[in-house]
DNA helicase RecQ
Amino acid sequence: MLDQALRILKDVFGYDAFRGNQAAIIERVAQGGDALVLMPTGGGKSLCYQVPALLRDGLAVIVSPLIALMDDQVATLDELGVAAVALNSTLSNDEQRLIAERIRRGEIKMLYLAPERLVQPRMLAFLQGLDIALFGIDEAHCVSQWGHDFRPEYLQLGQLAELFPKVPRLALTATADKRTREEIVQRLHLEDAERYLSSFDRPNIFYRIVPKEQPRKQLLAFLAERKGDAGIVYCLSRKKVEEVAAFLAEQGFPALPYHAGLPSELRAYHQKRFLNEEGLIMVATIAFGMGIDKPNVRFVAHLDLPKSLESYYQETGRAGRDGLPADAWMAYGLQDVVFLKQMLANSEGDERHKRVEQHKLDAMLALCEETRCRRQTLLAYFDEELAAPCGHCDNCVDGVQTWDATEPARQALSAIYRSGQRYGVGHLVDILLGRDNEKIRGPGHQHLSVFGVGKGRSESEWRTLFRQLVARGLVDIDLEGYGGLRLSESCRPLLRGEVTLELRRDLATKAPKSTSSAASQLVQSHERDTWEALRALRRKLAEEHGVPPYVIFPDATLLEMLRSMPTTLSAMGRVSGVGARKLERYGEAFLDVLGGKAEPASTPVDLRHELISLVRAGMTPSQVASQLKCTEKNVYALLAEAIAEQQLSLEQALDLPEELLGEVQDAFLDGEGELPPVAELAEQFRGRVNEGVLHCVRAALQAEFQA
Ligand code: ADP
Ligand code: ZN
């Protein structure tokens, strides 16, 4: 059995060995047993049902909650030469009938379905008349009513046990907690399922959490090291998403906004571009994520604090699904804490629920102020013990300095107490630093005994201290009033001198090591050209086939080509991720690139592709020119081509005032019949409109007439 499974793994998928529990799971299901699979994102869940599906007779039915995910999987299988289809609401009746016929004739090996479709009586009856190889239930945690992804339709999947008693079922999820696990077993009737629990560590992700000072500047410094990489920047509010996306575009980064307030078509369009193009940055609220299967997301940056470690783990987990180095980076400050606590206080729900949420937030804050290995702390929260510090997080790499903050903490607490427990951090810091201003004089705070006792420390040191006192729960925030600070019960031992306080020392932002990143060093500079050439070929093939680039080959496979430099087809066939079908289809083309026979990476098509990305991200022609290091004239020429092929609209491409644009259009349309050549109008607009603009407008009009 396992021999056969390994052969399929190699021939179809092009991989040499199973990972973690894959072999055991596949063996179990192939032999007809049920399984519950808990594996982190990127762990390789898909193979757990795809390989048994190929080992067993009949049709494998995979339940998945998201159309985008299904389409992605079907495209991937298609490229591998496996007959798979997704039945979803976007298909016409005729298309559906055609698929049903193909299934009946046994031409389809894997069928992807949304749960609500599977449980329709007609569908169940249809399937009962067939030979079913297995049921795979992906994202099985959707059955949990307590989880954040609850889907009522999932509850109905329980009936599969009764209707198909002989068909093996496997449920898969990346949600690890015990309660969800038990709920899956109970609701899906998986009492006899073997359980496979993997480590939830994501060893390829580097974790870094920095104190928030000038967040945009900090973000830019982080991104500057990752030019050309795809990533997600999470923000809390829609407004901030818009602002940050615009800011990044201005700074020359191809960034798109994503939040629930955008029209749904635009949202879908941005998501699609993120999946299909390389190197885009999605600036998003947490509305963006579920169903993002893009394997080569190289970083996830948080500009705001998530509300729990569950969220943090899940959101950062979208980086590096492909197993290659990736970064999780976050900037956090006192304002985040205030904001989240305020949200919590104003939220609906009973006291018990709020207490739970409060604990979750506290755990998140503790991770931020943690002085030990971040990964150990994070995994410990999920009941997993990591024996030694990981060596792959900021705390491990940079080391953490702690200091005895007992005395200044008492001074800070005293400043809060003596000023009446109603002032915010700004005012409290003014008191401690002895600043003589109107706001201090009003209430007479210049007479307080603590006035000026903190002159020995800088303002930022005091702010850090207050943040840490709040994070540790020694100080509360007055959430009904204006966010002033109050002493909490738990600070009494400190005030009474019964305990001391060790705190983390914030590193200076410019600490030399703080920018080092595994992900940014994925490809060495001398390999750049070949790497870009490989990516360019992949992009071209992806466009031809109408699939995302990673469906052609994942980054890991390109990287292995780059490192092993195969020169023959059989050597190419040994590269991990190159199965028989892909070798036949693409082997030669990639060998040519590696042998330097292909055209250089920067063919005009590539340049145009990049230009389109930049323009769509909101850059003006002159910004694009500086980004692509070419002349503006060149940019306009490429824009005109893109417009002619209707890849860009005139409005997207140009940054002209509407009226002026109208005037140019009118000038072209003034004559009878044929559009006049640009040269004829150049004089008329000299000094007002770049000649390139005229080319673009003409191209647009021409495209319009041809259509
Ligand atoms: P999950 O669904 O658990 O998030 P996937 O099934 O998408 O993970 O797999 C993540 C990546 O790892 C994919 O690119 C997949 O092809 C790759 N992968 C899975 N199993 C193996 C393996 N045994 N050897 C090499 N690559 C693998
Ligand atoms: Zn560590």
Remarks:
- Residues 510-516 have pLDDT under 50 and may be disordered.
- Residues 15, 18-19, 22, 39, 41-47, 295, 321-323, 554, 576 surround adenosine-5'-diphosphate (ligand 1) (CB under 6 Å).
- Residues 606-706 form one domain.
- The two ends are 58 Å apart (CA to CA).
